[in-house]
User: What shape does this take?
Amino acid sequence: MQGVAKGTATGRKPEPGVSRLRQVDRLSARQVDELVELFRKEAWTADREVGDVIRMLARTQHLYGFVDPQGEALVGFARVMTDAVYKALVLDLIVRPDWRGSGLGRRILDAVMADAELAAVQHFELYCPPETAAFYGEWGFTRPGPDVAFMRFARR
Assistant: This one.
């Protein structure tokens, strides 16, 4: 993408409602419940339980929550795990269904990529369904190629 700095979106403006959202780095108990409900509505996170999500959040290094200031409802979320030098793994970027298409996903990923505490990280990584790869490509994410394999060991 010519003219777009690596790690930034294409310059599309979010809808006006997105700009009024407040970014938080901690979730209230109610917002944790809202996150679990968001997870349960998606095939890739449907089996997550409240206790597991609470433990996950306690160990999350960088949390990006977006809440509606009227009522403080959680409408978007992502988290990052990192060694702060070589790798940062973007996880669980999720937007409440009624906010999809508003530009909130872009705002979340912009917040991740602009985080000063992550400025020295060499590689940001994530995995996503193939239909969302173009979205992440707007920030310079690419498929690693045939010399890298995605591997998983599942305990459950």
